[in-house]
């Protein structure tokens, strides 16, 4: 007998709000990362500071709006925050690894692989003031592509970790 998953189980308030706040977390991540890169020229520092900002933003939005967790005692919050951070360390490591390999160590390979060196960066989409700092040249576009790739992976992986471990509903009432 085949097991089917109903659309109601996949598309509900929790998953919709997780996707919404996941997108906002991605915006926090992108703005932080590319702002740091613009100020310092350092992609790795951009990853570190963007991950910290995104993790803190995601923890509180997930706790309050997505999983509607009501445990606010100091110990409960510290345990959850620790679990949340540990869960995100995998994505953090993935992000650092992909950035190092694809952006710092071998960017020319990926720029050529994706034909990013054949794009006219004078086109409005690449040269306007809103997008120029993100995709205004082949190196930035390469970084943007891999940043977006990691963020999509992060949304999926982090949802599973948050749902199954950090904000899992316990049968017994917690005294915290």
TrEMBL record:
Residues 18-167 form the GtrA/DPMS transmembrane domain. Signal peptide: none annotated. Pfam families: GtrA_DPMS_TM (PF04138). It comes from the Bacteria. The keyword Oxidoreductase does not apply. Keywords: Membrane, Transmembrane, Transmembrane helix. The keyword Transmembrane applies. GO terms for cellular component: membrane. One of its GO terms (biological process) is polysaccharide biosynthetic process. It is found in: Membrane. InterPro entries: GtrA_DPMS_TM. The chain crosses the membrane at residues 15-32, 44-60, 72-94, 144-161. It is a multi-pass membrane protein. This is GtrA family protein.
């Amino acid at each position: 007998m085949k097991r089917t998953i109903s659309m109601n189980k996949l598309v509900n308030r929790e998953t919709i709000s997780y996707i919404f706040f996941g997108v906002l977390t991605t915006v926090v991540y992108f703005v932080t990362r590319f702002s740091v890169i613009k100020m310092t020229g350092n992609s790795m520092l951009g990853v570190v500071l963007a991950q910290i900002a995104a993790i803190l933003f995601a923890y509180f939005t997930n706790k309050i709006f997505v999983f509607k967790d009501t445990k606010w005692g100091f110990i409960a919050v510290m345990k959850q925050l620790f679990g949340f951070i540990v869960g995100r360390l995998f994505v953090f490591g993935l992000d650092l690894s992909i950035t190092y390999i694809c952006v710092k160590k071998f960017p020319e390979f990926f720029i050529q692989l994706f034909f990013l060196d054949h794009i006219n960066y004078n086109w409005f989409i690449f040269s306007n003031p809103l997008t120029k700092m993100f995709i205004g040249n082949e190196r930035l576009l390469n970084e943007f592509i891999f940043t977006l790739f990691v963020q999509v992976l992060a949304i999926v992986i982090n949802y599973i970790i948050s749902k199954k471990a950090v904000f899992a509903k316990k049968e017994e009432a917690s005294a915290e």
